[in-house]
């Protein structure tokens, strides 16, 4: 049978403090700002710019359709559209339209992660246009909609009130 030996080191006030490791360099505030692109549900941090459904349809055809299929129906990548009202059924279809509570989340996700082979390459105007187009497919915004930092947070997603906050109350934003 092996014996285990445990060593406990006690540092007294007389022991000099251990120096922190010196890895890397201090974070440059400009670099932090460049990566701090989070968009909050209320639209905080949305950049200037605007985009229309028509512009978004052209961008989608060029940069998104090959993965998300025509009108966001999916294949080979995730489906983006449809499924509204299906979450309480035996076959829920979780899409941007049926599940996501805030349109600003769509902007944030597209801006930071799409296209998958070149994330963060879309201009803000392209992202606004793509969001407008995707939301127009399910009638969440009109076919002639133009979205910007003021109008996007006002878009009411179909499942906005389908979430429960930690207090147990239904989301009422």
Second CATH tier, the architecture of the domain at 48-154 = Orthogonal Bundle
User: Rg to the nearest angstrom?
Assistant: 23 Å
Instruction: Give the SSE string.
Output: HEHHHHHE
Shape: globular
Uncertain runs with pLDDT below 50, 5 residues or more? none
In CATH, what is the homologous superfamily of the domain at 48-154?
Cytochrome c-like domain
Structural class by SSE content:
mainly alpha
Q: Which whole number gives the mean pLDDT?
A: 88
Oligomer state equals: single chain
Tally of strands: 2
SS strand fraction? under 5%
What spatial order of strands do you see in the largest sheet? 1-2
Helix content: 25-40%
**Which CATH class of the domain at 48-154 is shown?**
Mainly Alpha
Topology:
Blueprint: H1 29-35, E1 50-52, H2 53-63, H3 65-68, H4 96-99, H5 103-113, H6 124-137, E2 146-148
Antiparallel strand pairs: 1-2
Helix pairs in contact: 2-6, 5-6
Overview of this protein structure:
There is one protein chain. It is globular and about 60 Å long. Strands 1-2 form a two-stranded antiparallel sheet. α2 (53-63) crosses α6 (124-137). The chain has helices spanning 29-35, 53-63, 65-68, 96-99, 103-113, 124-137, and strands spanning 50-52, 146-148. The protein is mainly alpha-helical and 173 residues long.
